[in-house]
Design a protein that fits this description.
The chain is an all-alpha fold. Helix content is 85%, strand content 0%.
């Protein structure tokens, strides 16, 4: 069962409740579009209500049984509060999920924009129309979310019969990326005024590439500082801790077995976890692009 089918099922179960709260979540219509979540707002709210209710019921049933057998009626009350806490977490995650996707897509589009715009410029220089260059861009999977946005523009033109200016305007309104929005609005202006699409795309690709290079240089400086911090705090720090713990054990009277266990946990569990978190953080702040 995919997301659309599950959302439809949830709407059948809790749609009447979701429709009552739709007016309070009108801003989520655009968020769902920008996040590329292809379900309606009532369906998403129904999904949130049903999923949260299902999780809380399951948690209450499991913990209620366990705590009732061990603590009686007091355990039921404890299980209830646990279920409420889990429900709040579940609802919060579903609430921020579209915003997280929008932010992620905007970041990916920003990284791909210099290369995608350069490709559009090349296509425009070979005599392709605006609708054709977006159709061809949509076929290049390496451009990731940019290709997804281009596919929507191509669909609006080819399938829905919109004119190019209208499709570009609609694309600019729904994209999560300011860079892509600026590109589309500028392209719409060029088409309206009869300017050169090729020249405009050349200028935009040059500007975007300059911005990309500056971000690469900034990241290189940040990476050097972060590596120094990693070596100083993690590597050297762990060595110092290992040595000091061995020395301090002779003064504190702690069981040597406990000291060795702490050192083993630090080396074989703590260091890999910290290193993994460091790698994830570096990957998160690094500029992407076509590899």
């Amino acid at each position: 069962m995919d997301l659309e089918d599950y959302a439809e099922f949830c709407y059948d179960q809790t749609g009447s409740v979701a429709l009552r709260i739709v007016p309070y979540f009108q801003d989520y219509k655009m968020l769902l579009t920008q996040a590329n979540i292809d379900i309606s707002l009532p369906e998403y709210l129904s999904l949130g209500i049903f999923t949260t209710g299902l999780i809380s019921t399951f948690v209450f049933s499991v913990f209620g049984l366990i705590f009732f057998l061990s603590s009686g009626l007091t355990g039921i009350l404890t299980a209830f509060f646990i279920a409420v806490f889990i429900s709040i977490i579940s609802a919060s995650l579903l609430y921020i999920y579209p915003k997280t996707l929008v932010s992620s897509r905007a970041s990916v589009i920003r990284d791909m924009m210099p290369f995608a715009t350069m490709y559009l410029s090349t296509l425009a220089g070979t005599g392709n129309s605006v609708s054709e260059i977006f159709t061809k861009l949509a076929d290049v999977n390496e451009y990731d979310e940019v290709a997804t946005e281009a596919e929507k523009i191509s669909r609006d033109i080819e399938t829905l019969g919109m004119d190019v200016s209208e499709a570009l305007e609609r694309g600019a309104n729904r994209t999560p990326s300011e860079d892509f929005e600026d590109l589309l609005r500028g392209l719409e202006h060029v088409i309206t005024t009869g300017g050169s699409t090729k020249d405009y795309l050349d200028q935009r690709s040059s500007k975007l590439m300059d911005d990309y290079e500056r971000r690469i240089e900034k990241f290189a400086d940040q990476l050097g500082l972060l590596v120094e911090m990693y070596i100083t705090i993690v590597i050297v720090g762990s060595i110092i801790f290992t040595a000091m713990s061995a020395i301090m054990s002779s003064f504190t009277g702690l069981n040597p077995t406990v000291i060795v266990a702490i050192q083993v946990i630090l080396v074989f569990l703590g260091l890999p976890i910290i290193t993994g978190m460091f790698i994830i953080f570096i990957k998160g702040i690094s500029p992407g692009g076509v590899m």
